[in-house]
Specification:
mainly beta; S-adenosyl-L-methionine-dependent methyltransferases; four-stranded antiparallel beta sheet; 4 strands; 0% helix; extended
């Protein structure tokens, strides 16, 4: 990316206004979520079973659905958590190849 020379900056730039300081009392309260429709029930078989394992100062969370491991979340002592997700569609992989059903580590980039 080329550097911008001082002469390339327009003269009509206006600074952004300062944002006011907000406290928790200044934020609006959120309404509770609406209830589920009466004919809709939550299927407990679809909810993942989470197993938390402590290894030293690291934490490992295993997510299983119907007893089948689908995702592992690794929370290291230093650094950001990363995820190992079961890979179902890998091409050109021998089924007996070690690690063939696990994707490369993934980090969450955006959360809202």
């Amino acid at each position: 990316m080329p550097l911008i020379a001082q002469s390339d900056i327009p003269d009509n730039l206006v600074p952004l206004p300062e944002l006011p300081e907000l406290s928790d009392s200044d934020l609006p309260e959120l309404a509770p979520p609406p209830p589920l429709p009466p004919d809709m029930e939550i299927d407990p078989d679809l909810e993942p079973q989470v197993t938390i394992i402590k290894r030293g100062e690291d934490t490992i969370e295993e997510y299983r659905i119907n007893g089948e491991l689908h995702m592992i979340k690794v929370i290291p002592r230093v650094g950001f958590p990363y995820y190992l997700v079961r890979n179902r569609g890998r091409l050109n992989a021998h089924p007996g190849e070690p690690g063939s059903n696990v994707s490369v580590p993934m980090w969450r980039i955006l959360e809202f």
